Amino acid sequence: MPGNRNRVEVDAMYEKITDSSAGCDLCGEKPCDGQLYLSEKHLCVCPDCKQKLEEIPQKSRANLENYLLGNVM
Ligand SMILES: [Zn+2]
């Protein structure tokens, strides 16, 4: 009998980091407390952008990350 899996586990692919010298790769924001999230592809995002990324389906997000990372100077 299949378990009740109505709670969709948000894929926690983000590592919480504290780096006051780093900024968000998406919006350039530097959280004053240095709280950032590092994705599995080493995209560094602020809590706001992390939330936005989490709303994007996994597949599109991977494409988006690849796109963004390809454009990082
Ligand atoms: Zn951001």
Can you characterise this structure?
With 73 residues, the chain is of the alpha+beta class. It has one domain (15-70). It has helices at 47-55, 58-70; strands at 15-18, 35-38, 44-45. A hairpin with a 5-residue loop joins strand 2 (35-38) and strand 3 (44-45). The longest helix is centred in the last third of the chain and has 13 residues, at 58-70. Residues 24, 26-27, 29, 45-46, 48-49 line the site of zinc ion (ZN).
In short:
With 73 residues, the chain is an alpha+beta fold. The protein has helices at 47-55, 58-70; strands at residues 15-18, 35-38, 44-45.
H/E series: EEEHH
List bound small molecules.
zinc ion
CA gyration radius, whole angstroms: 14 Å
Strand order of the largest sheet: 1-2-3
Strand content: 5-15%
Number of strands: 3
What about the largest sheet? 3 strands, antiparallel
- Give the N-terminus to C-terminus distance in angstroms: 51 Å
Shape: globular
How many H/I helices? 2
How many domains, as an integer?
1
The parts where pLDDT drops under 50 for at least 5 residues are none
Helix content range = 25-40%
Structural class, from secondary structure content? alpha+beta
Mean pLDDT: 83
